[in-house]
Design a protein that fits this description.
With 190 residues, the chain is α/β, with parallel strands linked by helices. It is built from 6 helices and 7 strands; from the N terminus they run βαβαββαββαβαα.
Length: 190
């Protein structure tokens, strides 16, 4: 386990990211970033930029702390954020059906006392089984897809649609644990 000499702050209100940090045994507080989340770059570049923006926005409020910020996008024929309607969720799930897609998470760790930042983008490939109209409508009726990038939750009922994964499981949830752990160890050594 890593012992931190300064407070750790998660720049996200995501319950999934909070759960991952708790699972890692990292004591932290939450300070949700107010950074602009608009970016016209492709998914891989966008998550890197957005994670840095979020870390910087929260860092301005904390003089000696470690800030952890992340941004996740699903990509299948273009970026897929969170659906704004059930119709949009349905469209996303149809695109994912019986196909591989990519999940990118940008993670930024910033130590404000040392003025040091580490950023990494993690990529995972996920394959969905064929989804019937009934599968899609039943899943949307649960409400689970509505606040998830790509309209599904791998840590929830959405896992029943996934038959293969290539890469970090926790990355698909929104925070790649192994990579974050390595980044935090590097930050504490700096």
């Amino acid at each position: 386990m890593i012992k931190f000499s300064v407070p750790v702050i998660l720049a996200s209100g995501s319950p999934r990211r909070m759960e991952i940090l708790s699972t890692m045994g990292i004591p932290f507080t939450v300070c949700v970033s107010d950074a602009d989340e608009h970016c016209d770059l492709g998914p891989e570049a966008a998550v890197g930029i957005l994670s840095l923006r979020k870390a910087e926005a929260v860092a301005r409020e904390h003089q000696n702390a470690i800030i952890i910020a992340a941004d996740t996008l699903v990509a299948c024929d273009g970026a897929m954020g969170k659906p704004h309607s059930e119709k949009e969720a349905e469209s996303m799930l149809r695109r994912l059906s019986d196909r591989w897609h990519d999940v990118y998470t940008g993670v930024a760790v910033k130590h404000t006392g040392k003025d040091k930042t580490i950023q990494q983008t993690v990529h995972t490939r996920v394959h969905f089984v064929h989804l019937s109209d009934e599968d899609i409508s039943s899943y949307i009726a649960t409400g689970e897809p509505m606040d998830k990038a790509g309209a599904y939750a791998i840590q929830g009922m959405g896992v029943m649609f996934i038959d293969e994964i290539d890469g970090s499981y926790s990355n698909v949830i929104g925070l790649p644990m192994a990579q974050l752990y390595a980044m935090l160890k590097e930050m504490e050594r700096a």
